[in-house]
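[Meeting: bench + compute handoff]

Bench side (C.D.) handed over the final construct sequence. Compute side (W.E.) agreed to return the predicted structure before the next meeting so the bench team could plan truncations. Sequence as handed over:
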Amino acid sequence: MENVTDRTSNPFGMRPPFQKHDPGNVPAVFGYGDANADFHLIGDHPGVHGGETTGIPFTEREASERLLDVFRAVGFVSDPASEPVFSNFFADYLHMCTLPGGRPPTADEYDELERYFDAELRAINAHILLPVGARATDHVLQEYTTQRRRIDLEMPALHATEIRGRGFMVVPILDPAEWEPGDRERLLERLEAILDSDYRQTKGVATRIG
């Protein structure tokens, strides 16, 4: 079913319990992009992946901008850089609220916002989930696949691989702040291969043909 909304930021009107944030920062970095996207990029929290003043996921950090440049190369992201346009592409965080000093959320704070993340993920209903970094990858594999117990969470090895999920294909991404030579190219090649194939969901299972 197609989502009908003209909102790019927070298309489903999420209203989480806001934490105290630093002056000049937005209270939360909401999900952003195409509400009917096939590709869903999932980060950790604003203190890691940015957006505290722009309100846009994966901005204001050199490493995160490097990651968006890969998606720009395959046609999902277009300028302006300060307010990018996402096409067939959506991005959000496990924990959307900004916190003082960019500190990481506590376990309870992650748990408090998990239902908002889950609701948004299911509303987008993308074919391809792209978790960035160990925490997001661990969460996605645990909650949306049956394979977490079989997988060693070694992000350099998991980077740009394909993992079958429950209704999704998961492509983990090593945090771009940790990329070594060749990691950008591995991700770009994986995305191009997926786009060149006939990917779709059949009876709730993400598949690729071709």
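W.E. noted at the follow-up: The chain has one domain: 32-209. C.D. will use this when planning the next construct.
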